[in-house]
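Researcher: Please predict.
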Amino acid sequence: MAARPPSLPPPSVQESAPIGHPLFSRIRLATPADVPHLHKLIHQMALFEHLTHLFSATESSLSSTLFNSPPFQSFTVFVLEVSRLPLPPLPPSLCFTPIDSVITLKHPLIDPDEDQFQLKGNGFYMEELFVRECYRRKGFGRMLLAVVAKQAVKMDYGRVDWVVLDWNVNAIQFYELMGAKVLSEWRICRLTGEALEAYSDA
């Protein structure tokens, strides 16, 4: 039996955030405390992909799967935090330095956003890249993809692979714009060579 659809996470950015207001964002490694938010986000992704009939993940199953190994040795999840106020500092980590950024709003916001990446294998396999609709076209997808590419270069990996749905034309155009090759037979995206190296100085 499929799990009960989780409710949406509470907003972390006020809906009334004015145009022109600075928006603070940070990409960091997920922790077990993020599991409830990850669970809700995965359900929203299943809804977007018309796969809710296959959604069976629970918070318990995510906890037991995602945090058994050190980051970048098995499943690894990145979380994107967004706030109208500066984000508090994080404790130091030996394997990843959080990426902080500030953007200026050019369009009104309706809903908060969190993102995840799952990385695995010899080279990185990106399981999902999902940005809620209200946060698209604001540079967050580019930010997240750049973080994965930069980490691949740092670890001397030769490529980043992922899959995109063939009907998701906007995503395909975005990935091609980022320099990825879309392999039409499998719809597998690959960032390698000069396009991957370009992120090492990002």
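Model: Helices lie at 35-48, 59-66, 140-154, 169-177, 193-197.
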